[in-house]
Design goal:
Length: 222
């Protein structure tokens, strides 16, 4: 398992976060669990080091980016980044060592979400956004998209038109539609140089998977 660089405030924040996740009103799907949060934090730490960003802000922002969770088919799902950002300053001020970074961490959390639509206003916010979006790409991204869809009853793909060639895409009904609706657009929107470089490799994994899937679903087209 990936390990974060030790920081004085990290054990207390992690302990509080784990307790918070255990008490939430909505059970998390496998794509938005603690393991996901920790992977995003490690990616944020890596990108921050390459880009010269404040690593404490980036790691704390990544750890708190999904502080508020709603299932993806819940009407409040697009609002969770803003809802989390409203809680973050208090969390930081109650965590010795993060007090002075409370506003910067909150700003990074507020703008990380694709569905929220906000643009990052700092390098640290760009790092957190890129780190979270990298988790939606590559082999992990493929696993996460189908786990998310399964959590609210979406099918894998439309049985008669899996590629949406004669219908409107609906990623709430068919998980494969989410590739075209969102995932394949992420690499082009990366904010940092490090994020773009990492995204290119993960994007290639998505494209290979889709090619392989098409060859299995449509063997006569090859």
């Amino acid at each position: 398992m990936l390990q974060l660089v030790p920081r004085p405030w990290l054990p207390a924040l992690l302990a509080r976060l784990k307790a918070h996740l255990a008490e939430e009103p909505f059970p998390r799907d496998a794509a938005h669990d603690l393991a996901h949060i920790l992977r995003v934090a490690r990616l944020a730490e890596r990108i921050a080091a390459e880009e010269g960003a404040d690593a404490d802000v980036c790691v704390a922002g990544a750890l708190l980016h999904d502080l508020v969770y709603r299932p993806k088919n819940h009407p409040e799902s697009p609002l969770t980044a803003r809802m989390a950002a409203e809680l973050v300053p208090l969390w930081c001020r109650e965590t010795p060592g993060l007090e002075s970074r409370a506003d910067a961490v909150a700003a990074a959390v507020a703008s990380h979400s694709w569905s929220g639509g906000e643009k990052p206003t700092s390098l640290e916010a760009e790092v957190v956004q890129d780190a979270d979006r990298l988790e939606a790409l590559g082999a992990i991204g493929i696993a996460r998209v189908f786990a998310t869809g399964a959590s609210f009853g979406a099918g894998l793909w439309h049985p008669e038109d899996p590629w949406g060639e004669g219908r409107d895409l609906d990623d709430k009904a068919w998980s494969l539609d989410h590739f075209e609706r969102k995932l394949l657009k992420l690499a082009a929107g990366m904010r940092t140089g490090a994020g773009r470089r990492l995204a290119e490799a993960r994007q290639a994994t998505l494209l290979r998977y889709l090619d392989d899937l098409r060859s299995e679903l449509d063997p006569d087209s090859q």
